Amino acid sequence: MTLQSTKFSVPSEKWKYKSKRSERTRSAVIFIASIFLLIYVLAPVGWLLSSSFQSEAEIVSVPPHWLPHEPTMENFNAIFFQEFEEVTYETRRKVDPAAGGYIPSTAKDLLPSMWNSFIISVAVVILNLVVGVPAAYAMAKIRFWGRQASVYTILTTRVIPDIALVVPFFLVIKNLGLLDHVMSLIITYLAITVPFTVFILVSYFESLPDELDKAARVDGCSRLQTLIQVFLPLARPSLVAVMLFAFLTSWNEFLLALMFTQTIASQTLPIIVASFTSDFTISFSFINAAGVVAIIPPVILALFFERYIVSGLTAGAVKG
Amino acid sequence: MSGFYTGLKYTLARRFNYEARSAGLFLFPVMSVLAVVAVFPILYSLYTSFFNLKLTRPHRVPFVWFDNYVKVLSDELFWESVMRTVSFTVMSVVAILILALFIALLLNESFHGRRFISAMILIPWAIPTVANGLLWKWIYDSGYGALNGLLLQLGLIDKYVVWLGDPDKTIPLIANAFVWKEVPLAAILILVTMKSIPVDLYQAARVDGANLLQRFVHITLPSLKPGFMLVMIYETMMAIRHFDLFFLLTEGGPADASHVLSWQIYVETFRNLSFGTGSAMSYILALVTFALAYAIIKMLGRRI
Amino acid sequence: MAKYVSKLARREFLKVSAAVGALGSSGLINRAFAAGDTVNFMAWSAAVDLVKSHVAEFEKSIGIDVDYANAPWSNYRDNIITKFVGAAPLDMMWVSDAWLPEFADAGWIAPINKFDNLMKYNDEAEDFCNDSMTYKGMQYGLTYYTDFMAFLYDEDALKKAGIDAPPATWDEVTEQCLKIKSAGISEYPLMLALANESWLMNFLAAMVYSHGGRFTDEKGNAAMQSPTEGAVAALQWVVDAVHKHKIVSPACVETGELTGLKAFQSGNHAFALEPKYRMRPINDPKQSQIAGRCKQVLMPSSNGGAHNTVGWMRFHGMSSATAANQAHAERTAKLIEWFGGRANGAYKFQKYLFTDIGAGFGVKPLFNDKDVQASYNSYADVEMIKAQQALALKSDVVTPWYGEWQETNASSWQAAIVGKVSPQDAMTKAGDKWDNLKQEFS
Fold it and tell me: CATH for A107-310, among 3.30.565.10, 2.60.40.180, 2.40.30.110, 1.10.3720.10?
C-alpha cells in the first residue's frame, strides 16, 4: 500500500513536482522490499547451494563456512556422471566413504527419478486442466440443481488427513493393478490436486461478470464454446496458477509415492532423495546437492509461465 | 437470421434441460475421477472408525458404534494435540497471509527485475518436501546449524542457542519452515486475484477523491476477498493436516512439544496399529477442517 | 445380542475387505509387483550395494529370481505395514526385534521352525540372537545383524585433562566430565543423542541397565517407577548432567543418533554412547577428526551395577502369506539361508557386512575369520568388545504394546530432561502407561 500511496495520493496541482519525488520514493520502497524478500526467500536456498559444494567434513564446521573453502563437485559428479555397472561383490560400493564423502548407491537413480517426477507432474497438470476447467466453469456459471453441493463434495475429498488415507489408497491402487507404475501416482495426484484446481478456478470464474456469459450465449455459443472462446482466454493467470499448483504438488509428494512405488521404474524424486538417508550413514551435503538439482525444472517452468501471471492480462478486458 | 431466432427460442425453451445436461457433462470427468480414487478411501476410513480395529488382534474386530470417537475425545493427549495444531495453524496461516499479500503487492507493481524476483520466490515451493525438511533440520541444528552460526557472527547471540530442543520454540520454528515453503503459492493466488480487479474502479475512486489508504481499504481489500478465501482455505487445510515437517524435524518431540494432531494420528495408526481410533481421529479432524472451510467460504466467498 | 452384533460386524468387515478386492480387480494395466516364482525381498536402505551383489550371486548360483526393493529406515516400518495390510506380494523382509511381537500377533510374519535348512544354524548363532527372534516359543528368522550400545571415549581429551583411566562408574563420568569442561577442552564432554527417534529406546535402555535397573520385573510388570530401581536414578543422572553439571548439552533432546555421531567424530565431545559398530567410522581418518583416538570401555555402572548395556538385533523374516504356499516358502527360505546362514558354504553376507560397515554378526564362527580379526584389530579391542557383549541384555520391553508405550516413555524422559517434570513423575507416568497397556492387551 505504501507503494501505491506515493504514486497516487498527491494533490493534482502539484502533480508534476511531487510525482518525480514520489517516483523516487516508490522506487526506493520497491527496491528495499525486493531486497528483504530476496533475503527471506534465498538465504536458506543459498545455504542449500553452498553446502552442496562442500564435503561432509566441511559442512560440520563451526562456525559454518558460508562459501565452501574447498569446493567439491563430488556430489554433482555422482548425480550426473555415475556410470551404471552391474553390482557384484567386487564392484559394490562399501557404505564407508572411500574418498571422504559418502555417496549413496542410489545416486545414479536421481536423474531417472527426476524424469519420472517430470512425466507424472506434466500428466497431472494436463489432466487437471482437462478435468478441472469444465467442472469449475459449470459450478461458477451454470445454475443447476446441486451446484453448491457439488462444490462442497469436491472439497470434502481433501479434508481427511493423508495419513489416514494411505492404506485405503494402497488398496485401490493395488486392485487397479497399478503398484510400482507411474499411472498409480498420476491418478492419485490427480485426485488430490483436482479439488483445489476446481476451487481456485471456480472462484476466478465467479469474479468474471455474468454478462460475458449471457452475451456469448445470446450470440449462440454453446456452453463448451462459451467456455473455450470467452472464459479460457480471460482465465489465463488463474490457469497458470493452477498449473503450477498441480505441477509442484506432484513434484513434492512423498507419502503416497513411498507406498506405491518400489523400483526406479516408478520411483519419484522425493523417494530417491529420502533414500539417501539410511540408518548407517547420511550425507547432508549430498542431500542438499539433490535438493539443488530438484529445484531446476520447476524454476525453468516458472520462468516460462511467469509472465502470464504477472502481466495483468485481464485487467482491462473484464469491464463487464 | 430467422434461423438464429428460432434456434434461440428453441434453446431457451429447453434451457433448463440443456443447462442441467451440460453441467452434468462438465462435471462428469471430475466426479468420476474422485469416485474411482477418492471416494473409497474416504468411506473406508469412516467405516474402520466404527470398529475396534487393532491390527495386532486380527481375530477380534468388534463393531463398536461411536466408542472410538468417545475414547478419542476423552483422551487428554488428544486435546493437547488439538491445541498445538490450533497454534501451529493460526501462526502459519496468519504469517502466510501477511507475507503473501506483501509479495503480491510488490509483484503487482511494474519495475525492473520483477521477472527475476517472481521466479525466485517460487524456489521454496520447488524443493521437495523431504529435502526441505532436512535443510531446515540442518539450519536449526544447535551444534552446527547455519542459524546459530549466522546469529553469532552478527553478534545477536553470544553463544549457541538450543532451537528445536527447546519446547517453547519448537512449534514456531516448524511453522517458519512451513510458511517459507507455502508462501509462494499463496502469493500467486493473491496476485492472480489482484490482477482481476478492474482498473477503472481505482480511477473512479480517485476521481471521488479517495486517498491511497481509502482505496486500499475500500477497493483492494474487498476485491481480494476471493483470493484471501482461497489462500485461507487451502493453507488452513494444509497446516491443520501437516505432517511431513513434524516427522522429519522432531517426531513429536521434545517432550510432546510438537505432538500435533496429525502426528497423533500417525502414531495411533502406524505405531500403535490402532486403525479404528486412528480413523476416528482423522474423521474428527476432517469435520473440523470442513467446518472451517465452510465458515471461511460463508465469510469471504461470493456465491458459493 | 451384543455378541451377535459384533460377530456379524466382523463378518461384514471381512466382506467389505473382500469387496475391495473385487473393486477394479480386472486391472487396467497388469504390472503389479513381480509375482510367481520371483522372491520379493524388502529391506531398509542399508548396505544397498552389498545386498544387491549378494542377491545377484544368489540368482546365479541358485537360479531363483529375486525382486529386491528398499525404503529408508525412517519410513521402512510404515511401508511394510502398508504392504502387509494391503496384502501386497512380500516374501522376505528385514525385521527389527522390537517389532516381532506386534508383527507376529498381527499374523504378518511366520515362524521358520519347519525349515530344517534354517534351524540348523542355531547352533552356530549367538544365543542372544536366537532368543531375540523367538516369540511364544517360535523362531521367526535368521540374524541380519546384532549390536549393542557402547561407551566410547576420546583418549586424547582425557589425557589433556590429566585423566589416567576412563571412568568405571557414572559418578566418575561426572567427575571426569567436569574436569574436561573446566580445562576448556569440551563444553559438553558427554554426547547423548536423545531425540525422539527409533534409536532413543536403545540409549535409554543402556542408561537404565547400566544403573543396575530394569524397566519391568520378571512378571513383566512395570518396575521403572520404583525409586529404588535404576530407571529413576538413570534419568536423574541425565537431568543433573544437563541442568546441574552442564556436562551434557540441553540440545540432546533434538540430537539424533547420526547427528550425535558427526558431533563426536568432529571432536566436540570426550565421551559418547554409540552403537558399537560406530567405532569403525569414528576411527576412520577419512571421516573423523578423532580417528585412532576413540576407545571403548565397559559401560559405567552405578549402585554396584554390573556394567550392563542393551543389545539388539535385526533379522530376515518370512511373511505369513508366503509361508502358506509350500513351494514359494521353500524358495524364500533359500534366500533367507543365503543371507542369514551360509551362502555356498560361507557366512559371506555377515562377513562383508562387518568388514564394510562394522555391523556385528550373530554367528560365532566368524570370530575366527582372519579378515574379521584383522578388521576388528584395526580400530577396536576385540577382548573389550567380547566382554561388553557378554554384559549386553535383551530389551525387557519388547511386547506387542512396545510401540505404544514407547511414545509415552520417550516423551516422559524428554519432559524430565527439559525440566518440565521430575524424574520420579516421569517414570511413574511411563510405568502407569505400561501397566495399563499390559492389562489392555491381556
Answer: 1.10.3720.10
What residues in C contact A174, CB-CB < 8 Å? 32, 86-88
For an interface test with C, give the residue of A74, A175, A186, A190 to mutate (most C CBs within 10 A).
A175
What is the CATH T-level fold of the domain C148-311+381-441, as seen in this structure?
Answer: D-Maltodextrin-Binding Protein; domain 2 (3.40.190)
What are the chain B neighbours of A223 within 8 Å (beta carbons)? 18-19, 22, 26
C-beta of residue C218 within 8 angstroms of C-beta of residue C159: no
For chain A, helix, strand, coil in percent to 5 are 70, 0, 30
**Shortest distance, CA B162 to any CA of chain C (angstroms):** 5
Q: pLDDT tens-digit profile of A215-251?
A: 888 888 888 888 888 888 888 888 989 999 999 999 9
Task: Give per-residue pLDDT as tens, C249-278.
Answer: 999 999 999 889 988 988 899 999 999 999
In tens, the pLDDT along B220-255 reads: 888 888 889 999 999 999 999 999 999 989 998 898
CATH code of domain B49-300: 1.10.3720.10
Show the cell assigned to B10.
428453441
Selecting from A63, A222, A254 the residue whose C-beta is nearest the C-beta of B244 gives A254
Note whether C235 and C411 are within 8 A (CB): no
Cα–Cα nearest to A3, from B245, B108, B187, C168: B108
| C112: pLDDT strictly greater than 80 | yes
- Specify whether domain C35-144+313-379 bears CATH 3.30.70.20: no
Chain mean pLDDT for chain B: 88
Q: Which of residues 156-195 of C touch B (CB under 8 A)?
A: 195
The CA distances from residue B218 to A319, A320, B98, B205, B221, in Å, are: 18, 20, 18, 9, 6
Q: How far is A281 from chain C (nearest CA, A)?
A: 7
Query: Is B202 part of the contact surface with chain C (CB cutoff 8 Å)?
Result: no
Q: Tell me, what's the ipTM?
A: 0.88
What pLDDT, in 10s, does the model give residues B23-48? Answer: 888 999 999 989 888 888 889 989 99
List the single residue in A with minimal CA-CA distance to C197.
Answer: A279
Domain ranges for chain B, please list them.
1-38, 49-300
Per the CB < 8 A criterion, the answer to whether C224 and C231 are in contact is yes
Do residues C66 and C338 touch, judged by C-beta distance below 8 A? no
Q: How far apart are CA B186 and CA C148, in angstroms?
A: 49
Q: What is the mean pLDDT of residues A175-180?
A: 89
Chain A residues with CB under 8 Å of C72 CB are: 274-275, 277-278
C97 vs A58, more confident: C97
Phi/psi at C88 (5° precision): -80, 150
Answer whether B195 sits within 8 Å of A134, measured CB to CB.
no
Span(s) in chain C for CATH 3.40.190.10 = 35-144+313-379, 148-311+381-441
**Minimal C-alpha gap between A245 and chain C (Å):** 26
C neighbour chains, 3+ CB pairs within 8 Å: A, B
The answer to whether B251 contacts C411, with C-beta atoms less than 8 Å apart, is: no
